[in-house]
């Protein structure tokens, strides 16, 4: 049995069916603003930079998706990070009893800010961005790899189809390209995801504020070696591939529909 299936089965046996969806409300609260910032920003920066490089320096045009992806993901990540932190902590929460009510997004964030009394408010609010460096260290390479593969794959599929793009072909091309790009990017950046998660669930406030991604990766390597670095890789790839495919294909077909609507 794979590690992903084993984890899901053990989680179900020990904590109940509902715990498999722990953190879902935070995931939904995170997804809408993140995609709302990320995708339009990527389109904007890609179009502006492609226009510039095509005219001034055509040799740089193939690298535009990589750079646009980095900028757009950085903006989305910084803006929505507190909710990402809440989601990770909610998913890592373990109740001592079956009937213990899981903390919500707001309570989780309040607990992050005020776990104990007597510390300064400025430092408390800094805790909402605990692990942001690790998040950026994971998401920026992920986005760069993902968009570099996705744009090339998508254009190759459209070129192979050789027809005027329609809703069906747009969904098919973007879903396929997104699935491949998301899966590859998730596999490559898995160690950074493990480091991000470890930093976000760190309970010691002083340690959480001083930990670096490099130190965390060194600890993971020392504790578990290569297996520890790629812990949960199957689950991450299994989630990232379909997630990227669904988001990109939905976004592109909505864009196509709005474009046709305004032309009529």
Descriptive report:
The chain has 264 residues and is mostly helical. The radius of gyration is 20 Å and the shape is globular. Helices cover 78% and strands 0% of the residues. It has 11 helices and no strands. The model is unreliable at 11-17 (pLDDT under 50). The chain crosses the membrane at residues 20-40, 60-81. This is Mitochondrial carrier protein MTM1-like isoform X2. Keywords: Membrane, Mitochondrion, Mitochondrion inner membrane, Repeat, Transmembrane, Transmembrane helix, Transport. It is found in: Mitochondrion inner membrane. It is a multi-pass membrane protein.
**Amount of beta strand:** under 5%
Query: Can you tell me the residue ranges where pLDDT is under 50 for at least 5 consecutive residues?
Result: 11-17
Percent of residues in helices: over 70%
Major sheet size, sense and barrel closure? none
Q: Nearest-angstrom radius of gyration?
A: 20 Å
* pLDDT averaged over residues: 80
SSE order: HHHHHHHHHHH
Q: What class would the helix/strand composition place it in? A: mainly alpha
How many helices? The count is 11
The geometry reads as: globular
Strand tally is 0
End-to-end CA span: 54 Å
Keywords: Membrane, Mitochondrion, Mitochondrion inner membrane, Repeat, Transmembrane, Transmembrane helix, Transport
Family: Belongs to the mitochondrial carrier (TC 2.A.29) family.
Pfam family, one: Mito_carr
Protein name: Mitochondrial carrier protein MTM1-like isoform X2
């Amino acid at each position: 049995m794979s590690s992903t299936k084993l984890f899901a089965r053990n989680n179900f046996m020990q904590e109940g069916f509902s715990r498999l969806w722990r953190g879902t409300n935070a995931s939904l609260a995170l997804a809408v603003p993140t995609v709302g910032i990320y995708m339009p920003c990527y389109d904007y920066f890609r179009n502006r930079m492609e226009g510039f490089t095509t005219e001034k320096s055509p040799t740089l045009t193939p690298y535009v998706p990589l750079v646009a992806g980095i900028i757009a993901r950085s903006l989305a990540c910084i803006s929505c990070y507190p909710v990402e932190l809440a989601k990770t902590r909610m998913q890592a929460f373990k109740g001592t009893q079956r009937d213990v009510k899981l903390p919500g997004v707001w309570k989780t964030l309040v607990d992050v800010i005020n776990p104990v009394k007597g510390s300064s408010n400025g430092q408390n609010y800094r805790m909402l961005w605990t692990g942001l460096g690790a998040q950026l260290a994971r998401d920026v390479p992920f986005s760069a790899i993902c968009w570099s593969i996705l744009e090339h794959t998508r254009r190759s599929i459209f070129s192979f189809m050789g027809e005027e793009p329609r809703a069906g072909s747009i969904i098919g091309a973007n879903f396929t390209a997104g699935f491949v790009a998301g899966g590859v990017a998730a596999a490559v950046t898995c160690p950074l995801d493990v480091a991000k998660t470890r930093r976000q669930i760190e309970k010691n406030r002083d340690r959480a504020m001083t930990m670096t991604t490099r130190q965390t990766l060194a600890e993971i390597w020392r504790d578990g070696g290569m297996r520890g670095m790629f812990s949960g890789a199957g689950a991450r790839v299994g989630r990232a591939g379909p997630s990227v495919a669904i988001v990109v294909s939905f976004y592109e077909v909505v864009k196509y529909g709005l474009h046709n609507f305004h032309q009529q």
